[in-house]
Queue: 4 jobs
Job 1
Amino acid sequence: MSELRDAAMTSKAWPFVEARRVRERYDAHAPEKGHVLFETGYGPSGLPHIGTFGEVARTTMVRRAFELISDIPTRLVCFSDDMDGLRKVPDNVPDREGMAADLGLPLTKVRDPFGTHDSFGAHNNARLRAFLDAFGFEYEFASSTEYYRSGRFDEALLTVLERFDDIMAIMLPSLGGVNEARRESYSPFLPVSPKTGQVLQVPTLERNVAGGTIVYEEPDGERVEIPVTGGNVKLQWKPDWGMRWAALGVDYEMHGKDLIPSAELSSKICGALGSRPPELYNYELFLDENAQKISKSKGNGLSMEDWLRYASPESLSYFMYQKPGTAKRLYFDVIPKAVDEYHQQLRAYPGQDAEKRVANPVFHIHGGDVPESRMVVSFAMLLNLASVSAARDKDALWGFLRRYAPDAAPETHPDLDAAAEFAVRYFHDFVAPTRQFRPPDARERAALEDLRARLAAWTGGRDAEALQSEVFAVGKAHEFEPLRDWFKALYEVLLGASQGPRFGGFVALYGIDETVALIDRALAGELAG
């Protein structure tokens, strides 16, 4: 462990770069609260999406990295801003008309259109927690509604009231692009109307710092005085963010690149309240298949459920680890690559020294307790096997796998067993509908006939490298230039795709006789027909 710790102190892996920033915050001495607090924030105005998972996963990676280089205890709080008023009905929920009647109410007072919880906020919070629990995250869930109503924010809210003018001086310049009426009506306090229960965006008309109250005007014209404590008000979200950092003593938080200006304002507000803002890290956004930002209200892009239907949670964590500062497409076609790269890193880990281990993504995915990969066949290969065999379930693939790797079994290779099932699903949902076989041209036909003859006479067993060399030899003999055109032809004619696996490995897995039969079908026009 000491070797890993030493390596971590200079590692360029981004979780350790971030962890060292947090360590330097306290110069290796524990803060007065006795721990370092990591926070992630979640706005439950829409259903949880995969970006929410990514934020918790990445923050967890930094937390684990910090725990390796520091003995200071840590906590991770996942905070839900569920007291925010519903401003828009999400596009991807049932009973949108019914929800529209609850506009303006706190999310924990909005009806649950799914009928499973007391409120829409509670429903989305439950979904978020269920997914985070399924991934094994260690976190404490925090509800904005509970924190406001229980009085946990009361002291900080009274400080906001006392320093109202300072906060207004920070916020008003940021509203320069907004109409004058918005600037005139702005207040960091949003009263929760005792008449309607709605979170009101109205001016603060009077302030009583000694009494801890504000005066505002209801839509019907009545002037009302309410305390800023006990859940009677909700702060605008930027002041709320800064207040939360100050009240809880947050030391580290990530946020999307689109929130950089908001984070800067919240940091100033946190400072105005007399506290040090947390160390912040902004990450690039995820994009859908059309290069549009993923939105929880639109429900575009991949959901967590989508990814877990086709691949393991560890492969999703691997995807999240990669280059958080770079925008990435998050759609179904990224899954196979993520699965195979994850297992490549698992296989490499045992032979690596400490420096390379702490830079390996699987170290951060598994918190240093890295498992062994039992994937004797790549996910890409399983997809091609599912394709040519028209497998309806994983048992069909195991018929090939047992011949290729006699020592493999579902019981001893659970990751391979799960991947076989994922591959069948992925093939039928995404590959089968888009396959386009084509007939070979004259030169390709001659090369395929040559390859068929060589395989029919093959006596070298299931040696993938030897078979790959034989396939190479056929391409060279028939003067394919560049040689990749020969492999592209094999994929398009035999597999119905423009890309594919190392063909020698595919033949070894699928079988010599089976590949000969596949070539016969292609030459007879049965595949393209």
Job 2
Amino acid sequence: MSTASDISRLARESRAWPFEEARKLAKRYAAAPPEKGYVLFETGYGASGLPHMGTFGEVVRTSMVRHAFSVLSDIPTRLVCFSDDMDGLRKVPTNIPNQEMVAQHLGKPLSAIPDPFGTHESFGAHNNARLRAFLDRFGFEYEFLSATECYRSGRFDMTLREILRHYDEVMEVVLPTLGEERRRTYAPFLPVSPKTGRVLQVPLEGRDPEAGTISFRDEDGALVTVPVTGGHVKCQWKVDWAMRWRALAVDYEMAGKDLIDSVRLSSRIVRILGGRPPEGFIYELFLDEKGEKISKSRGNGISIEEWLRYASPESLSLFMYQSPRKAKRLYFDVIPRTVDEYFACVRRYHAEEPAAQLQNPAYHIHAGRVPEIDMPISFALLLNLVSASHAPDKATLWGFVSRYRPGITADSHPALDRLMDYALAYYADFIAPRKRYRAPSEIERAAMTDLLARLEALPADADAETIQSEVYAVGKAHGFASLRDWFRALYETLLGQSEGPRFGGFVALYGLENTKAMLRRVLSGETPET
């Protein structure tokens, strides 16, 4: 068994991306630990919407880096999930009740808008509760911070005054990135109107760094002077990000590819304020089934709830782990493959040497505590079993499995039992509606007749490899351009779909007699469902 020091030594050389990221932090504090006594990881959340796939991806990836750092270093760590609930609401979301009521409060901080759901003291508090419930559901270890509380409690006061003192330098960084019209009205601070409570985007009429105040015209035209502290202002987005990094001394934060320019600008502002930008990681964005960028407003792609209807949280974590710097299609058809890849990673992990284990995604998904899971049947094979048998429930599926692997039960294999639930749901929603049977061609009919004869000659207890050998032999004997064409013909004529797992394994699970009956129906001109 490897010791902690052995694992740490191997981690320093591992090419797994969480360790590569963690080594940047280890180098950051190679000379001495941070003055605050811990390394701070942060993820940000826009409180105007509900948690989504990107929220999960950012938190789970950050958690992987955090664990990797804990393997390399003894410095304590914290993970902060920060909610920008002081942001002014610009438009009414279409997926909430009481929209007319919310419309009356446009421009106000989310934390100052009544909760349209009627369950919390504000709309921001409602969405924050949803975020925390979301994170708790997946067992993330984190601390929650509210922008409103940080601004109003004085936690940001010192840094806000720093921005005021370095006002001109901050403006020199930001203004070149803005259009001409926006430059004329831009200010790093967004004052909160004392009269209406709205977050205002107005130019400043004056500022006093010594007093720590700014002056502006309120909505009624009156000149108002307020302190930049105590929640009287909120910073503009890019300045706000930099302010947060500086005030909290954030050491690590990820960002999507669409925020590259914001990361650079915010990093420059942090340096102006005398701070050090956090280490970072730029991840690629998800694409939909057409290869287009996923948008919350368009609703393309797949939601967290949809994924979890068809597969486990661990499989979703694997999807997030894989190639984070590569744009990937996030759609329903990636789920079966990802599920089977997850179980393959877990199975492989327990047979690997320690160095290889640190490269294994399962290590990072489970923070080094990888469970032992015996999964005798793949998700793809289960889907084909449901397709062929038209199983209405798990009891029917367990009947096939018990014959295929005597002694296996739901109690002995709970992961397989859960996988059956996922398979039944996925089949009903995605495979059944798309099944399209076709009649075999002449060459395919001849090959299927030959296959039926060969299966008739096999003993009732023939195993998957024996059956697979016969299927291969038929494909080679009947002049198919490639064996891929032969297997596609079997799946399209027998199951109404173009892909499937190893056919020998499917036959062994479904049963020789059942498969032969299905072949006879197809050869007689019927569909397998009739």
Job 3
Amino acid sequence: MKTLLIFIKPYRWPILGILGLTLVGIMFELYIPTLMANVVDIGIVNSDIPYIIKTGIWMILLSLMSIVVAIGGIYLTSKVAAGFARDVRLKLFVKVEGFSLEELDRVGTASLITRTTNDIKQIQEVLSIILGMATRAPLMLVGGIFLAIMMEPKLSLIFIIALPVLVLVIVLIIKKAIPLFSTIQKKTDRLNLVIRESLTGIRVIRAFNQVSHEKKRFDVANEDFRDTAIRVNKIMALLFPFMGIIISFSNVAIVWFGAIQIEQGVLQVGNMMAFLQYALMIFMAFIMLSIAFMMIPRAQASAKRIGEVLQMEATIKDPLKTNGHVNQEGRIQLENVTYRYDGAEKPVIENISFEVEPGQTTAILGSTGAGKTTLIQLILRFYDPVDGRVLVDGIDIRKMSQKKLREKIGYVPQKVSLFTGTIEENIRFGKTDVTKEEIIQALEVAHAIDFVHEKENGIKTMIDQAGSNLSGGQKQRLSIARAIVRNPGFYIFDDSFSALDYKTEARLRQMLKEKLNATIIVVGQRISSIKDANQIIVLDEGKMVGKGTHEFLLETNKVYQEIVYSQSMEGEVS
């Protein structure tokens, strides 16, 4: 919770305004019962109609002013709560954007979405309650008790019994509910995860007739969430009946002993009515505080989860002092690079060393799980090696800013990510100040211009979420064009031709060879995609087992020979 207090500071003046308006409003409300007592004890008893009318007008004016003040307080409260939520949400989003893949893997995408939306919403609601009810209730409580004691000290003794019992009930119930609120947030994470997987994988689920299985999986998560929510609501539901009983007995006691004092001539009827009003205010203050206490535990759980993310340090940071010397050689070197994922028994890649010469093409080949993509992610500094180092243009990438490193690289990922918007907007994602002519040229090089021209709106054609209105090959070619338009010193193609047919792939590779004057790293499964590379790196179970040209490896490397043989049997090697 302390981590989030810093976000309150910019709103200290509006908060002081809320407190001031609340104080003025409470003063108006607390004075009205006294006026009512005077109407009864002075105006009605003495049949003083002018006094009754004058006092009644004052009561109406005070009520209207109290309403105006309350509206002002509600407006400021909403403004502060919404602004606070916006600031925290932005800070959380920026923080997550700066995480390496290691932190993202550790927390989980579904949980981060829940923390950015549901958890912040919980805190926003509680902040509204605290600024509204929780600031109002203590003032009303103290003011009501003070005026009640001043008016009738003997009747006020009833509060000595009632109020401690009320506090005890609230504390016991809240203490029982707090652990369950944390559990609910975890159940929400799980529910969001199941929903997200079901929606993103809907095609696979239907293709394999697993709709009923996914329904059962959702039912389990949903019912688990429901059962926990019912448990906590059952506990919290006890609060108001107990409070109602205590308040009712207190009112009965006030009327009982007040009637005795009226009969004895010690207490006037007007004062009795005013005292009941103050008692109602005091108990209403406790009800408001109890509502705040009901919400605070859940907000604490949410604040803790948000604080965990905000306090989490990214494992990959820019150095305090970056290397100012910028080469444009186009050289990449890996020196004894080893990487192990958190919790893994053995490294996913181990002791990898090779050099990518400027202007040449290096291919990385290996079976599934050999560590090819991990190797690329280390070059991009999505992860840092646990041992060894990666150098780009002679500089250790840990001594470069991440922005400067990635400006040098045009990256086409294994899993294509396109965004909702036009084709033009997606290409500009690679370089915002690119001209229309450069976009067309990049589409031509990526062999995507034909299908783009076939679209009714050309480069202005809208792309649906995740590119669902495009084929796999079309998405890959747009992703390649997005990288090309950057005109970087390095290109990294991570299995970026897998969705293309052999003819299109061959024409695309030829176009890339002719048009791109840069260092290229290609990760591939097909021998036909990588056999023309200047050097081929062969990986097997995370280790480099071969390096050289296609012809050299074909003669000397057993693993490479097996891959070539298996693909030639399938007719994939041309």
Job 4
Amino acid sequence: MNDHNLQHTLASPGAAAVPTAAAAWRRTLPALLLALVWIVVCYRATALGMVGIWARSETFAHGFIVPPIVLWLIWRDRTRLAALTPQPSPWLLLPFAGAGFAWLLGELAAVNVVAQFAFTALLVLAVPAVLGLRVARALAFPLAFLFFAVPFGEFAMPQLMEWTAQFTVLGLRLSGVPVYREGLNFVIPSGHWSVVEACSGVRYVIASLTVGTLFAYLSYRSLGRRLLFVGVSLLVPVVANWLRAYLIVMLGHLSGNKLAAGVDHLIYGWLFFGLVILAMFWIGARWREDLVPPAAPQPPAPASVAAPSFGASGAPWAACAVMALALLWPLAEGRIEGGGATEAAADVRLAALGDIPGWQAMPAPPSDWRPRFDNPAASLNEGFASDRGEVGVFIGYYRRQDDSRKLVSSENALVKSSDLFWMRLAGGQRTVFVGEQPLVVRTALLRGPDRRRLAVWQWYWVGGRLTASDALAKVYTALARLAGRGDDSAVVILYAPGAAEDAAASAAPSVPSAASESSGPAALAAFARAAAPAIEAALRRTAATP
């Protein structure tokens, strides 16, 4: 009997492996769950910020279903996972620490998306750190799919809006409808239309990409087909949104604006989008491979070449290391932040510019336009005049930045799409001299209610550094805070009225012609050179004030 049992055991090597794997899971799974809960608690402000965006934004409402889908995908593979023996991998604590540092930089620079991606990466990297690489490979897609919970993608909205406007205007002209276009606004004989944020199609793109990625994983086994379908799920909604916008305008035009007017064009848009996505999935299902039996699993790597690990019994120690590293970065952020943020921001007094050589102060700015920068700690809006023309200068100063008060934000803009009086017609970049320093500034052409036009130049001042880049402004802010110099920064905006042809020239990287020397761009160039030292001095005096 004993010989028979021995022979049966030798003939069934997997029989002994199952209890070993089960015992390893009993030791490691509670440690992992404790570490994950600890991470969520330590970074609860970031997690709650993500949930808040899911709740208030229709674009990212899908975030609520991503965690349940991830849990379902893991549960779906529970039999395959149970056959694996988890073994913690200590070297993965290094990328885990890197994700924590990225979270710290995102918090210091007030870049929510960086902090949210880093928080999600901490959750993902905790799995291989505690369970090991073999288990993480088996969970690769569910772990990667968790990143769809991060509210991300609105950066593409301006480009999508521009493409939508271009396609719609092209389609109307090919259909024989005369069109006059200014920026994202265009006029046809039957009325006026505008491409706003809701028309960008970013909601369609994000929704299609999320569902399409999941469909590709569940329906295909080959990497090529999966990647191809993901690419299709990204391209199809973009083109579908172009067609949607064109058809809605044509429907309104042909019906005398009785159809597709008001909010019903959004309903038609979602209906059209739904039909297109259903067709995409129907076509994609013709090549599905989920019913094909999977290939036989590869044998485990020999122990001699296995990745370094603590061993299954070291899971509690690996979880403790994960928890200690997770706590380090919030503590560091709290130490850098200090206290009294509200009072310090409220006490800011922006220093006066003083005299500008060759320019006289005006009793009021040359225009009633004002940029839409939310909640600066201090601001000024003044006008100056000379024989070169009239120029307005707006400075928005920021200190102790947070979610409601920050220099670079998607909510800050020269003109918002909901503005009833001003619209943005064009934009670009131009190299100018700020004092004696060459600087690439952002330019824009705006039109007011009585068709007045403004040439606008914009750049940032961050702790003495100048840039027109949103990304660099965030980097400079994070570096300054890491060095203990605070986050004092400002947006500098110069604007000048000019004729349409002269103001349009300000949005192009070219030197103004002699005929337009007294127009908006020339006035801005002269004022920037003359006023730069005074602006820099005023900002430095403000930063030096506690």
